[in-house]
Amino acid sequence: MSLKITDDCINCDVCEPECPNGAISQGEEIYVIDPNLCTECVGHYDEPQCQQVCPVDCIPLDESHVESKDELMQKYLKLTGKA
């Protein structure tokens, strides 16, 4: 499942550089996560790095982009060219 950033985001800028897939970018008002690039850090880390550094805990799972760990790993392999 992809992650998403909620309206509670305070634009602190700490999540964007932590994303190994470049899935996080500045949106019109708050940071946003591209679900096509988000792997919940599967393949890179044991835990989603953006969630680890977020000071306001505003990065939950995105229920509209449900993916299994296997699907996330396949996405990781495709994104990194290791597939």
From TrEMBL:
One of its GO terms (cellular component) is cytoplasm. The keyword Iron-sulfur applies. GO terms for molecular function: 4 iron, 4 sulfur cluster binding; metal ion binding. PROSITE patterns: 4FE4S_FER_1, 4FE4S_FER_2. InterPro entries: 4Fe4S_Fe-S-bd, 4Fe4S_Fe_S_CS, PSI_iron-sulfur_center, YfhL-like. SUPFAM superfamilies: 4Fe-4S ferredoxins (SSF54862). Keywords: 4Fe-4S, Electron transport, Iron, Iron-sulfur, Metal-binding, Repeat, Transport. The keyword Electron transport applies. Residues 1-29, 31-64 form the 4Fe-4S ferredoxin-type domain. This is 4Fe-4S ferredoxin-type domain-containing protein. It comes from Pseudomonas knackmussii (strain DSM 6978 / CCUG 54928 / LMG 23759 / B13).
